[in-house]
Amino acid sequence: MAMKVRAQLRHARLDGREWRVLRPDPALDTAVLYENDRYPHMCVDRRAAYRIGVLWLLAARSRHTVIHLPLRAGRTPAEPECAGRPLDLVLSQHTAQLRASHWPRLRAALGPARPHTVRIPADRRPVERPHWQTRDRLHDRVHADTMFLTGSAAVFRFTAEYFFDLAFLAPGSAPGEETPHHACSDLNCTTRVLVNTYCLHVLYRAHWLPRAELVGAPD
Fold first, then answer.
1. What domain of life does the UniProt record list for this protein's source (predicted)?
2. In the prediction, which pLDDT does 187 show?
3. How many whole angstroms separate alpha carbon 26 and alpha carbon 205?
4. pTM of the entire structure?
5. Which stretches of the chain score pLDDT less than 70?
6. What is the biggest distance separating any 2 CA atoms in the chain, rounded to whole angstroms?
7. Cβ pair 208, 75 in contact under 8 A
8. Which of 15, 76, 179, 197 is the most exposed place for a label (fewest CB within 10 A)?
9. What backbone phi and psi angles, to 5 degrees, belong to 85?
């Protein structure tokens, strides 16, 4: 059995090269990424964490596909602790050779979307990572309201598990109830998986404001 996520696939030609860019479909409504003075924070519910985990594994399996998560238009968590400048997220392997500075032009050049289904084997077989030190890391950079994460197949497979942990192990919560307890994942604090950022804090949030309550949502 495979894990499946619906997506949209777009192609672009830029500087004599063909590009393949994939986005989730529908958009990730209950996932947001913020940049603040300390380090980036991401908030997700269980379903969004699962979908991101599958797309994270796709980044590990597809050497030439760029994964674009347009998170700036997401809803706002009802609980506090998520604030700052909203960011989109882009994942790609080193072999794709995507430069952050080229992203605005590439995004503008994308053609029409075609329906696509991402299928990943359910047996994920996560990669073991040595404690503290390894050269295999995610290179992170923020540019054009977007956080770019670039790395090897192995490091994407390893870090995908942070999202599956929240998807499968985070507490449930019925409408109107408080989240039973705190649940989060921290990319980097002990594994030193990120190059430039101290930590990417991924926080589980059960409750989200309706879209009608959003103020000043980005275009």
1. Bacteria
2. 85
3. 19
4. 0.89
5. 80-82, 124-134, 172-181, 189-190, 212-219
6. 54
7. yes
8. 15
9. -80, 125
Burial letters 126-153, b for 16+ CB under 10 A, else e: ebebeeeeeeebbebbbeeebbbbbbbb
Query: And the tokens for 163?
Result: 């999202």
Residue 81's pLDDT is 63
How many Cβ atoms are within 10 Å of 88's Cβ, its own excluded?
21
- Kindly compute the dihedral angle of the four CA atoms of residues 205, 123, 71, 175, in this order, to the nearest 10 degrees: -30
Lookup: tokens for 101: 């500075």
| Token pair for 18 | 């063909």
The CA distances from residue 206 to 13, 176, 186, in Å, are: 40, 10, 18
Residue pLDDT, tens place only, 28-57: 999 999 998 778 999 999 999 999 999 999
Q: Tell which residue, 169, 203, 167, 185, has the closest CA to residue 46.
A: 167
Token digits for 43?
């908030």
C-alpha 47/C-alpha 29 separation (Å) is 10
Of how many residues is the chain composed? Answer: 219
Phi/psi of residue 66, nearest 5 degrees? -95, 125
